[in-house]
Structure formats: C-alpha cells, structure tokens
Design brief:
Layout: E1 3-6, E2 9-12, H1 23-41, H2 51-83, E3 90-92, E4 95-97, H3 100-107, E5 109-115, H4 121-131, E6 141-146, E7 152-156, H5 159-172, E8 175-179, E9 186-193, H6 198-207, H7 210-215, H8 219-225, E10 226-232, E11 241-248, H9 250-256, E12 261-263, E13 266-268, E14 270-272, H10 318-323, H11 340-351
Antiparallel strand pairs: 1-2, 3-4, 5-7, 5-8, 6-7, 9-11, 9-14, 10-11, 12-13
Helix pairs in contact: 1-2
C-alpha cells in the first residue's frame, strides 16, 4: 500500500491521517497537483511539444484517470455502507469513534440451546436462567429469544462468551448448545434473459465481467461463492426477462452490487435481497400464503377480511399490534416501508448474514 510522509507521519491511501485528511481530500489534492503539472507542459502558443514532454503528459493523464477511478471506488463504498445502514463513524484525530451499541452488534454471536427432552421454549429459558450463572461465568448476553421445538437463541457479546455458554450448558443442562453460523448474503440479479439456465447465468457472470473474473483464479472457485436459489418472473414482464435470486460470498457480493453486470446481451442491476418469508394471509412470517392455516387478516386495517374488500379509511398494522409494545406506532399498513415490525425483521436478518 502506497504511503506519503507528511511532517514525519505516514498517511496511507484509504485511511484518515493525523490531521483528519480524508481519502477524498487526498485524492482531490493529487488531481489538482497533476492538473497543474500538465498545464505547465502545455505551450501557451501553438508550439510543438517535445517528445519527452509528451510521454510525461500521457503518464500524468493515465494517473489522473486512475485517481478518478479511486474516487469512484470510494463513493461506491460509501453508497454500499449506506444501503447496509452501517453505523456512522465520527473521526476525531484519525481515530474512529463507534457507539457502544454498534460495537455490540458487530461482535455478537448467537447460540442455539436445544433441549434433549420434549419441552417448551419457556421451560428451556427458565432452566437456562436457573442453572447457568452468567454473572459468575462472566458471560456477556444481549438478549434471549424463543425458537421452535423448545429451543432458545441466546445472543452473546463475543465468540469467547458464546464458547463459555456452550460449555456451561453441556455441563449443567440436558441440552445441546451450538453457535449459529452466519449465512452468505442473498442478492437479486434483475432483468436476465428468460431463456438462460442457471449454469449459463453463472458462466456469464464470471466470463463477461472483468472485475469478477479477476477476483477468481478459476471457475470452480467462483461457483463455490455463487449459488442460484431460484428464478422469479417480474409482474410486468414485457421483455421476456426474469430475476435471479442467489447467494454470494461477501467478496463476490461487494463486486456485484458496486456496478451493473453483463449477462449475455443484457446489462443487469444487482441489489441486496431480503430472504424473510412473509405470509400475506395471516400476516405472520415463516410460511407462504398457500401453506397458511391461520386466520385471514387484512394488510391495511387488521380486520378479518381480504385487502380488496377493505373499506377502512385509517390504516392499522396487525403485526405491530400483536407485539403489544406500549406506545408503538400501529397507524400504517403491515410490512410497509415504515413498519417497525418489518424493520426489526430485516435488522435480525442482517445480524444473521455474513457481510
């Protein structure tokens, strides 16, 4: 990594130096210096440039283009972080300050505690509180949630805390404890030719896009990082296209979402995809409407009728209403952009994803 000395202190590209110079400012400074040098080489009158000056001029222009490429890379990174709703970092004298809550979110590890005998999640939670002394063991815990078949999920402060909890559960309880592994991000490639197969899409992504091809030594390595789940047909499908829902490794995801990719004869946008499964019949998660055995609930007003038959003037969210949290805003449609329940589900999905 290139570095420049400034008043006895080293400043690296892509970081903030001791006096608070950002990468963008450093890049602009270098662009201005190159521009000034180029202007000095250009004759005021219509004179012929010397051969060595022409070579210098070409080299400077190439470096200028490279600098603008770096600038674009910085902007893409900022945009990607904004889409992930990354915490805002305040830089003071070159040292980033991150809130305590954001630190906890970054390092937290979830442990599943599954009882060996048939019981409810409430029973497992009660036994866990009685038999595992998190204070004496110095185990940092953020929270605990109920799961299926009597299981509970414990969010620990760190990997070390998760390991201590796992050992304690094995010693004190009739249960198994395991660390929940984070899954790869899920992305959606929009507007792929409907005639293409999954294998053809994979090959196009690798061979037609230089940034992807340069990131992998061979096709097999790339295929390990790229798994197609399914194809989805857009509602207004005028151009015989389909969307491709797939998982990508953190490295490959950062490449795909930073720019549009070429797939056969089309240029396609790639966006992060939420894998939360919503039911629009009972308005619960974890299953589809066709498999639902729950009661019909209106998405707009929480009534017992279909949305198309709703005559309510004011919206009321059944999902937020079920949480029974005092003061929670319920005056919106279920799973709308402003729905707190939807935001919470997406945040939990982000925690389970390895970005």
């Amino acid at each position: 990594m290139a570095s420049n000395k400034n008043d006895g202190k080293t400043t690296r590209r892509g970081s903030v130096d001791s006096v608070g110079v950002t990468p963008e400012e450093e890049c602009v400074k270098r662009v201005r210096a190159l521009t000034g040098a180029i202007l000095e080489l250009v004759p005021v009158k219509s004179e012929t440039l010397k051969i060595e000056d022409r070579k210098k001029l070409r080299g400077m222009v190439c470096e200028l283009n490279q600098l603008f490429g770096e600038q674009n890379g910085i902007l893409r990174e900022v945009r990607a972080r904004a889409e992930k709703r990354a915490p805002i970092v305040e830089c003071v004298q070159g040292k980033p300050k991150v809130s305590y809550a954001d630190k906890l979110k970054r390092s937290s590890v979830t442990v599943e505690v599954q009882p060996k005998v048939k019981q409810t999640s409430d029973d497992t939670k009660k036994q866990l509180a009685e038999k595992v002394d998190v204070v004496a063991k110095k185990i940092g815990v953020h929270g605990i949630k109920k799961g299926r078949d009597g299981a509970v999920f414990v969010e620990c402060s760190s990997k070390q805390d998760a390991e201590k909890l796992r050992v304690s559960v094995a010693e004190k309880m009739q249960a198994k404890a395991r660390e929940m592994k984070k899954s790869n991000p899920v992305v959606c490639i929009h507007g792929v030719d409907a005639a293409l197969t999954a294998e053809q899409v994979s090959e196009c992504v690798r061979q037609q896009n230089e940034s992807v091809e340069n990131a992998y030594e061979n096709g097999e390595e790339m295929r390990e990082d790229f798994k197609i789940f399914r194809f989805a047909t857009p509602k207004d499908n005028k151009h015989a296209v389909k969307n491709v829902v797939c998982s990508a490794s953190p490295k490959l995801r950062s490449i795909l979402i930073s720019e549009k990719i070429k797939v056969m004869w089309r240029v396609c946008a790639v966006k992060d995809y939420s894998n939360v499964l919503y039911c629009f019949k009972c308005l619960k998660v974890g299953h589809k409407s066709k498999d639902c055995e729950g009661e019909l609930t209106c998405k707009k007003c929480a009534g017992g009728h279909d949305l198309k038959d709703c005559k309510a003037k004011e919206a009321k969210c059944a999902v937020c209403q079920r949480t029974k949290i005092p003061g929670l805003d319920v005056k919106h449609e279920a799973y709308s952009q402003t729905c707190p329940a939807r935001k919470r589900l997406l945040e939990e999905e982000r925690k389970r994803t390895n970005y």
